[in-house]
Amino acid sequence: MSDLAAIAYRDVGTAEQAREKLFELQKQGLISIRDAAIVEAQPDGKVKLHQARNMTGAGAAGGALWGGLIGLLFFAPFLGMALGAAGGAVAGKFTDVGVDDGFMKKVGSELRPGTAALFVLVDQVTIDKVATELAQYQFGGKILHTSLSTEAEQHLRDVSQRAQDAARAQGARAAG
């Protein structure tokens, strides 16, 4: 079972840095991410989604491959590739995997303009180590939503606050 967390950030750049850090931590085996998307509340009031995966491009590539193979059977591989790519792109455009886009847009509409939220769908996580690594991005700043139990969510908040306090203390020692 996957767990969902939505974390607010002061801007889209910080949310992107946090997402990239999560991908690094995934390579280290500290977290297993099913989806990681950013919602940006733009100054004009619109909500923009920054998906981690481009399903349109993946659909087009897959469609071109299958279309080319099927086209070979009918001695028209280029026509098959073109038709397959177009069909795959359309299918990919309407495919929604991971966190529901409608839910992300709803939460994004409640953000202050200029801010962003990172939505992470996680299969497993070593929360203490991940929270410590993300403290520099104000991980504990504002947890908007989780699918965790009440106890697990409180643990996440506590770990995040401790990591953030430790990062502030370290920054103060370095400055002083």
Automatic annotation (TrEMBL):
Keywords (A to Z) from UniProt: Membrane, Transmembrane, Transmembrane helix
InterPro entries linked: DUF1269_membrane
Highest taxon above the source species: Bacteria
Transmembrane segments: 64-86
Protein name stated in the entry: Membrane protein
Native species: Actinocatenispora sera
